[in-house]
Amino acid sequence: MLLRVRSRRFFCDNDDCPAKTFTEQIPGLTRPYARQSSLRASMLDAIALALAGRAGARLAAVLGLSVGRNTLLRRIRAMPDPEIGQITVLGVDDFALRRGHVYGTILINMDTHRPVDLLPDREADTLAAWLRDHPGVEVICRDRAGAYAEGARQGAPEAIQVADRWHLWDNLGRYVEKTIAAHHHCVQRPEPVSAPPAPDQSSRDLQQLAAEAAAARAETSTIVVRTRKRYEQVQALKAAGKGIKPIMRELGLAKETVRKFYRAHAIEEVLATSLAGRPSKLDPYKPYLHQRWNDGCTNVLELHREIASQGYRGSYGLVRDYLAPFRETGAAPPAAAKPPKVRTITRWIMTCPDDLDSDEEAALNNVLADCPHLTALAGHVRSFAEMMLQRQGDRLEEWMTEVDADDLPHLRSFTLGIRRDHAAVLNALTLPHSSGAVEGNVNRLKMLKRQTYGRAAFDLLRKRVLLTA
């Protein structure tokens, strides 16, 4: 399309005026010193914000808008920031620029659910400075990171801090898993309805040999060997008087990993879950493998094909490693149902009882009947869930007192963390404010981050997050 435009040209007779001549502009179509139309410029801006550099340039070429990737990036940088305005309820959370190494902070206006800024780190001073530059924040919804708590106290001392309920529940789940791992040895599988004949001595010997072989295989697994090595390294540096951060830098491990090994009183605390094992794709097919092995079929490749035809989707190596002890003992022991895995019991306890099916509810009741500690644990979890869902923050102190009175050291660690951040947790269990909108924006930010590389691209990422909300 070719547009022929006729416009007027003006001259200024004032010798002091720097504009000697200028041309009449057509609103919405032309502007001074422009090398492209306003429509084309707006299309390029939209493409740049959606896809950034290379991907944006490829799409623009398909649409007939030939442009280089660097031009699109310059257009993003040249865009003005949106107005922040007055913020009453602020959401704060971190996100990974480089997972395990570099993190930033996203700030959300909880009234509009739109991001208002990105900070290049998650330090208390950075957040405090931002809050001082933007006064008027009355409520701060945040996770339980100590840096954000301190930054909020420094930058907005009058604001109410509200801990994120999802993070509260997630933190509780981690301590529940640790407690279950510590007591997993006392969990027994429920007896079948019709008990089979008592195994003879040879069957018991085979079961013992197979159990010993499985335990030896677990002890020599890669994750167990690596965990023992890291635990010894961290404990040796701790004995030398070094703290968590120096150990983290020296060993090149994540902070949470070092903290876990640093605070553990024994290696069993960090190995309990690994030794107990995780749910395996092979579990439903183990009775069949035992039967076929005792029938004389000891060809692992053939057995793998048979269970694959029944729906098995795991690897051949998993089958081979499981059957290896049977080759040493000469026969497979009777297939004994194993107790539920640590994570399975954790899921049962952390799930609303109304959402469990009849089989899961029966299995959980059998597990709790075998261990009074887990019975007490399940009761505390359900009480906390009721308190959180019904906003009964006035019960928090009573709940923590009951937990401290039981022999549940991991759960007592959870209450210790609550006491350090008591006001924010109490507000989370009392007030209606939620951080759900923050988590949604963090997920959207992750998709944008995939197209923005390196720490130098933080400004580009910030612009795209603010302007595409």
UniProtKB/TrEMBL annotation:
* Matches recorded under Pfam families: DDE_Tnp_ISL3
Ranges where the HTH IS21-type domain occurs: 229-293
Q: Which residues cross the membrane?
A: none
Q: Which PROSITE patterns does this one have?
A: HTH_IS21
The record's InterPro entries line, in alphabetical order, gives:
HTH_IS21_transposase_type, Transpos_ISL3, Transposase_DDE
The protein's matches in NCBIfam families, at most eight in alphabetical order, are given as:
transpos_ISL3
Query: What is the name of this protein?
Result: Transposase
* Organism encoding this protein: Sphaerimonospora thailandensis
